[in-house]
Amino acid sequence: MADSEYREMWEKLDLDLPAHDALLEVLGKFYGDIYMSQQGRLQGMEYLDFVLSEVHGLRIKELQDAKAEGRKIVGTFCVFVPEEITLAADAVHVGLCSGADAGTELAEQLVPRNTCALIKSFIGFKLARLCPFTESCDLIVGETTCDGKKKAYEAFADHAPMYVMEVPQQKRACDRELWKSEVLRYKEAVEKLTGTTITAERLRKAITIVNDRRRALQRLNALRSANPAPISGRDALLINQVSFYDDPLRFTQSINALCDQIEERIAAREGVAPADTPRLLLSGCPMAVPNWKLPYVIESAGAVIVGEESCIGTRNIRDLVDESGETVEDMLDALVDRYLKIDCACFTPNDERMDNVAAMAREYNADGVVQYSLMFCQPYGHEAIKLGKRLDAEQIPSLAIETDYSMEDVEQLKTRVEAFTEMLVR
Amino acid sequence: MIAGIDIGSRSIELVCLRDGERVLMRRLPTTFDPLAQIDSLLADVKCSAIAATGYGRALAAKALAQNGLPAVETITEIKAYALGAAALAPEARTVLDIGGQDTKAISLAGAGRVLKFEMNDRCAAGTGKFLEHVASVFQIAIEDFGAYALQGQEPLAINSMCTVFAETEATSLMARGYKPQDIALGLHASIVKRTMNMLGRVGLHHPVLFAGGVANNPCVVKLVTEALGHVPIVPDEPEMVGALGAALHAARLSVPA
Ligand code: SF4
Ligand code: SF4
């Protein structure tokens, strides 16, 4: 596919072409520095390098082709939106990334300045006309997981076809009922959008597709408990990030192939870092593409990341949907139950997350936990204090980092992370 | 000879050891050309190993390695202060370091091992830079500012942690006729309050070793002592602790395995 055809496509999507060119250039350079410079990468990563290099090209072309066939595109910001339902209605489900400092000033005209970088980013991308995914969406589904997002979606609705799901904030029987009604309401909305009725057969197939992808990622994660670490945390994060926008079938197949390679590596006792490298678990706020700052700082400081306790990580793949349901009703119940297991910091209480982080640290043989929260993020900021105490009690060293997408604090971050790594070297 | 060098935002310190004894200590302002300052600090120094710490550690290590020094390493300020403090006072369990642009609280296990640490983030509130800035508003030399504040009787509350806003607060208090010594005392107290929060977060254990340039300020030391309810250990030349720690780290390096 020629670059000129992409340009035509971007033009049709009404992107701001000069600004978009600049974005792609920065992204390319960033990617080169952070990813291509790594030693001893797995061959299977070439697929991801390709997908990422074509993120605004081939993948968008695929979306346009799908649209030409009459399929609809649904964009989301959160792992609460049940992808199975979108897929069962034969629509395409993409996670909209929001991991870069772009259009921030424009965004600050719609949301207060002390809003987290993630929210500013998705608004900024839209207002600055930089994201071909956002521009391709027939529906954008938000959710009420934090006040910042809740209010931002109200403002965003003037600029995009917005639909909001109400996620409860407790997990009692009445909350389950609320969530179930929201899932049903989403099913109806998607059916209306696509004109496709969700049958048991369609839903069963969608559940299997998404579960299979989760299983492939679970397999990958399980392999990461090996020492020496067989894959870098940066690469693993990238895989998780790509899982949100690539075609699920193709993605699952590629990750399983990658896992075969990893198994060979482990058998040969090879790794991306020596066996005595401090192993860290990264935990907290989601890290959307291209938010690679902290992972890069960590892995440049002589540590290796062995797991992501994040929505772009285990929070999104830990639990499967029960596959035994026969009827649409059964399957919807299974979906409701599965999604309510998500241990997002928006819930109160949320003790499961504390348990999950501690268990993960042990499972992946981590020497310490780096807690990541975005500045101004209330839910994860609060939990950072609580989780810090819990990890102290379990004698798991932890470091809490609060940052955003700008580069101005990189030196301070380096000092903190290096000092934490020095502490863990035996 | 073994050397340690601490390249901070305000000043660069050098400590040289021979057979474990400190034989040389020097210091220069960082300026806008830290590499030239490092060169002049090291001009007549012959050492077999050197470790760099501080903000400019990576830059310095690169330059030093190019100069053909045999063993050059970097460590963070956290580790350097921990090692330095443990050598000066093995009984210390917590290190407080208030430097030019950073404040750190470190909780120590034996032998200079770090258990936990806290650092201020991007802004310079509560650091030496803050004091320098407000001293200049008072038109008092920074070396004399602590003694001046000690003349105050009633510390006036300064609510802002931001250097710029604290200055505004101080000037408006002056305009309202409050005693400048009391305002100066309030500014010192605001630093100490912030520091105590940080110490609390690492789990304060006594004795505390107070290092960094601000430990030369008698008013801060007095207020820290009051707040702790214990007298902190203040080493001679507290700003040298980081460079000493780096030198000790370099000494470990040069021991043949
Ligand atoms: S952190 Fe919570 S709100 Fe954010 S993506 Fe994850 S589940 Fe959704
Ligand atoms: S990072 Fe925190 S504040 Fe930002 S959208 Fe997510 S939950 Fe809300």
| Largest sheet composition of chain B | 5 strands, mixed
CATH topology of one domain in chain A: Rossmann fold
Q: Total number of helical segments of chain B? A: 9
Ends of chain B: how far apart?
A: 18 Å
Q: Can you give the mean pLDDT of chain B?
A: 91
CATH topology of the largest domain in chain B: Nucleotidyltransferase, domain 5
Largest sheet composition of chain A: 4 strands, parallel
Q: What's the helix-strand series of chain A?
A: HHHHEHEHHHEHEHHHHEHEHHHEHEH
Oligomer: heterodimer
Mean pLDDT of chain A, to the nearest integer, reads: 95
Q: What spatial form of chain B do the alpha-carbon principal axes imply? A: globular
CATH architecture designation of the largest domain in chain B:
2-Layer Sandwich
Low-confidence stretches of chain B: none
Indicate the overall shape of chain A. globular
Span between N and C termini of chain A? 52 Å
Query: What count of helical segments of chain A does DSSP give?
Result: 19
Global Rg of chain B? 19 Å
Strand fraction of chain B = 15-25%
Q: Which regions of chain A have little confidence, pLDDT < 50, spanning 5+ residues?
A: none
- Derived from helix and strand composition plus strand pairing, the structural class of chain B reads alpha/beta
Give a short overview.
The complex is a heterodimer of chains A (426) and B (257). With 426 residues, chain A is an alpha/beta fold.
Overall description:
- The complex is a heterodimer of chains A (426) and B (257).
- Chain A is an alpha/beta fold and 426 residues long.
- Chain A has a domain at 205-320 and 344-424: Rossmann fold.
- Chain A contains 19 helices and eight strands.
- Chain A has helices spanning 3-12, 17-36, 45-53, 58-68, 83-88, 104-107, 117-127, 132-136, 147-156, 173-194, 200-223, 233-242, 248-267, 293-300, 314-317, 328-339, 351-363, 378-393, 410-424, and strands at residues 73-76, 92-95, 139-143, 162-165, 279-284, 304-309, 368-374, 398-403.
- In chain A, the strands form two sheets. Chain A has a four-stranded parallel β-sheet with strand order 2-1-3-4, sandwiched between helices. A four-stranded parallel β-sheet of chain A has the order 6-5-7-8, with helices on both faces.
- Chain A is globular, with a radius of gyration of 21 Å.
- Chain A starts with a helix and ends with a helix.
- Chain B contains nine helices and nine strands.
- Chain B folds into two domains: 1-89 and 240-257, Nucleotidyltransferase, domain 5, CATH 3.30.420.40; 91-234, Nucleotidyltransferase, domain 5, CATH 3.30.420.40.
- In chain B, a hairpin with a 5-residue loop joins strand 7 (103-108) and strand 8.
- Chain B is α/β, with parallel strands linked by helices and 257 residues long.
- The model of chain B has no long low-confidence stretch (mean pLDDT 91).
- Chain B is 43% helix and 21% strand.
- The interface between A and B is medium-sized, with 12 and 14 residues.
- The structure holds iron/sulfur cluster (2 copies).
- One iron/sulfur cluster binds at residues 78-80, 145, 286, 311, 342, 344, 346 of chain A.
- Chain B: InterPro entries: ATPase_BadF, ATPase_NBD, CoA_E_activase_dom, Dehydratase_Activator_Redct.
- Chain B: One of its GO terms (molecular function) is iron-sulfur cluster binding.
- Chain B: Residues 4-250 form the ATPase BadF/BadG/BcrA/BcrD type domain.
